[in-house]
Amino acid sequence: MMWKRVAKFLGIFLIALLLTLLFPPLRYMWIVSYKALSSAFSLTLDLAQITLIAILFVGLTVPLEALGWWAGWYGDQIDTTLNPGTLAEPISPQTNVVRYVIYLDGIGQASSRYFPDGEEFLSQLAAALPNNIVIIRGLIPYSVLNRPLTEDRMLSLFWRTAERLSMSEQPGILGALLAVAINIRNMFVVTVSADQRYGPIYNQGMAQVMYNSLVNYGYKPGSGVPITLIGFSGGGQIAMGALSHLKQALAAPIEVISLAGVISGNTNALMVEHLYHFVGEKDTVECLGPIFFPKRWKIFFLSYWNRAKRMGKISFASLGPVGHSGPGGVFDLKKLLPDGRTHLQQTLELVTKILLGEYHSEQETVKVKPSNYDRYLQAAFNQPDYYPLTPMARVLTQTVQTDLYQPIATWMGRLILPPKEQRQSGVWLEIYHATDKYQYLVGQVVNLQWIDSPITKISVQAITKDVHFSEEAKYSYKQGLILPVRLNHWRQVTPLESLAGSRPNDDVIVMLREPVEVKDSTLYITSEPVQITGRFYGLVKFLQLATVGGEHFRVVHFNRASGQFDGVEEIVRMPKVLPYEQEIFPSTNYDIEKSPLNVTGWYIYGARDAAGMFVVQAITPRVLLQVQPQRIINGRKAALDYVKKECWQDIVARKGLIESVLLNTKTLDIDQAISEWREGDRALVVHVYGGIGGKKREAAASSSIYFGHFAYGVAQVVREPLTDELCFDIDYHQVYTHNSDGLIAGTLHWSRYMGDRQFGWIGIRPTTNILIKFAPFTEDYDFNGVKRSALQTLIRELEIMTARYRIGDGTGVTYVGPANNCSQDSNQALYAAIKTILFAIKSNNSEYQDWLKHNLDQVSRLQKLEKLGESLRRELLPFGVARADWQNSTENLGSSLEDSPLKQLFTGLLSWRTMLPRKASDTVTEIFLKQGASVWILATSQVGGCDPDIAAIAPISF
Question: What is the pTM of this model?
Fold first, then answer.
């Protein structure tokens, strides 16, 4: 009530003053009336006038302090580290701090002192939090120099008097007036922070103050330790204003908790990990923000604020019948809510839950439309527990006949996402297969973590983000997209967690590439786990159905000794897969024994069920992966014609067949051309798939134009132990948006992405897999003992990109856009990889010059790599200007077109050759061919059993 009376008094006073100035006759009456007043009342008016003049003076000089700091007017003697704030509770040097919290008080703050209710809030908050969460208090958010109003200022005496009276138990009318003076002065600071002219300067200064304070209390820039800014009232704007500068300086995840915060829409809210905005229903101050700041109006839907809202970065919550500050405000110690808690208790509980990662602000999202993934799980053979690791199964695993079946990899298992309260620095892995030394781990659940190395740490930290579903994500989930719903509202989700939690169930089966380190019950890895299908594979020829119309087939195994299919006969099960939404079956068993590819046999991938029968989960024609081409094309012109034209011609007529074509552009004889592909060699894979037509045409191919899909991968020439022949082992690095099938962006083995009978594409889509072997790109450079290759750098770039795709950079979903999609983002990674490897080798100029003199063979390769990079730049960016995000490796990815639609279209046009998957594939392959690369093309067209209701559709190109 006191504040209302003061407000009314000031209003009457200002109206009277205005009338006096505008009408001279009233001025005379005012003077006569003033002289007739008592000395006490006239003194009050004098003080009010002085206060008003002081407020106006200080308000006008607020921007000058920020400008002076920026221009260096205060000289070198100004040291913003002198008052780094204090800790709410001291910590020992040995404490492993997991989060730093900075409290920024409201506009009533004149020094590092807080009002009693604010002191009580911080005291109880510190007591409620564990010792490894540090709270920094005492900063002055309304001074770019972190300087209190009460010290070293022209009006310090005035502000000290104002602070003393405003904080006294009985401030009286004078104390209330002086408190208003502090509020108005600091309100000017808030408007400066929100101003688009002076705001960036002031906000950078405040970011510097916070930076200094954090470093003073042990924060290490680049460590990735999360930071939370708690802003009360005007402190909310100061927090959001400084956010982008502070995040850039520290390379840290930063979230903001706004308690009745008055926040403009001018700051880049997209930079915040998450903003929790709490407002009371009786708050008459916070409601001014949406009114006075146009960027928060809904009509400006492309403002940072509104885009952040749509992306799910801002959570709004009502505090109930709560006001702004003081009695009835968010920190009121006595006022009770309907549930019996005080206002302070409610605020304290909310903030504590957020800081401990226990806050949930919304109801569970319910699906309206089932996904293809949901349909697939209705079949028992698509679930991991159909292949239990019972004692009998473990015996079968350990005693499998190695001449009939081989493990897909040495280390295999099922990823398990730990419960939120049991999170550590990795995920869990149920071991399916291990090395001989660690066979005792089979069937056990162990920890899976990244190895502790500088390169791995930097990569993981760059893609570790908070996940909060946007409104688009929630809607997409209802419509049947498979999103990482278990990760919603998780903080600092790591790449391993995003992989394990991509689906609603723990059914991601993976293999681990070497090196794998084992310490106690923890496995340490350096590269992303590879998604696979099955646990073992064999090489068989289908003889006939074991039962009429059934799912059991009699097969004969390949005999390595004779080189023929005259080995052990066995009955395997090939379950009937479930159809898509349009009743399209991903694969079929029908007449597979009559397929022309059956002559040379099939690799079958799967596992044994509880009864010990081998269940075929994936298939691949042997002849496709053999390092033995069906056809060789000689000459560069003929090779280019094949890539651009013949490769996709007659794909309908080639249904059920494959093509293995070696492009010989070096005038070598056939044996020499094949011998260039040696055991251990690696090649870049350029993959494109087409559409599904025929009677059961897929919805995406309903028009005459089908765009297709693009991906990069890696093929390695290995010696396959069942046949003792060379073949290609292929991993794909799929930059894949969220979908209904549950296909996860990441590294997928051939058995998962192509061969899987339920989830793969070999039986239903036409595909090309162009293998490119070019020593300057695919082989290592040995730079004084440090080995680097552009191909390995590309893999790292793609692992980063796909990890971001899995969580939509924290929004929960990723969409296709003209500037960012599977093709554009994959080729951005290729462009970045070549730039990175060249920069890394040349970064130390003196050592580089010495290296050039002693490594002439490698220098020749490096020069070819530079030439390749220039050709890629010229062809992929035909306008001669590098896209800003490609040039600077800016972190963009597929998004909704409504976010800067014109900018997306323009940006996409700068690299238009990579907008269309097939055009991108043709362009990249042509560039490598012209540089002298060896190229091998593996093409398929709806391979497997016969399905007369589907036909292949080639992707569009120009």
Answer: 0.79
